Amino acid sequence: MQVKDLEANKGNVDIVLEIVEKQEPKTFNKFGKEGQLCNCKAKDETGEVKLTLWNEQVGQVKVGDKVKITKGWVGEYQGEKQLSTGKFGQLEVVQN
């Protein structure tokens, strides 16, 4: 799959992207547990998409890495598509 094919509210997304920008991680509390999230900008040859990293993923990825998302989820926030691993997906750094 490629960025141009991503549709909001769709799951089971398999895609390889290059991380081109990484924001500062944010810490949050949910259900009494502390977690981290970090928004990145990722691209392929067809476009860019916002990629949200959760918890341990935040430390795995840096700018310039190629990552493979398996069974990812595309959500939408304020009209912008956002890709994440969702509940069932996986993130793997395939090249750094």
Q: Quick one: how many beta strands?
A: 7
Task: Give the N-terminus to C-terminus distance in angstroms.
Answer: 21 Å
Strand content: over 45%
Given as residue ranges, the uncertain stretches (5+ residues, pLDDT < 50) are none
Counting H and I runs of at least 4 residues, what is the number of helices? 1
Radius of gyration: 13 Å
Spatial strand sequence of the major β-sheet: 1-3-4-6-5
Name the CATH superfamily classification: Nucleic acid-binding proteins
Q: Which structural class should the secondary elements be placed in?
A: mainly beta
What is the CATH architecture descriptor?
Beta Barrel
Briefly characterize the structure.
This protein has 96 residues and is mainly beta.
List the topology elements.
Blueprint: E1 10-22, E2 26-30, E3 33-44, E4 47-54, H1 56-60, E5 66-77, E6 80-84, E7 90-95
Please provide a written account of the structure.
There is one protein chain. The protein has 96 residues and is mainly β. The chain has one domain (3-95): OB fold (Dihydrolipoamide Acetyltransferase, E2P) (Beta Barrel). Helix content is 5%, strand content 64%. The chain contains 1 helix and 7 strands, in the order E-E-E-E-H-E-E-E. The chain has a 5-stranded mixed β-barrel. A hairpin with a 2-residue loop joins strand 3 and strand 4 (47-54). The longest helix is centred in the middle third of the chain and has 5 residues, at 56-60. It is globular and about 40 Å long. The mean pLDDT is 94.
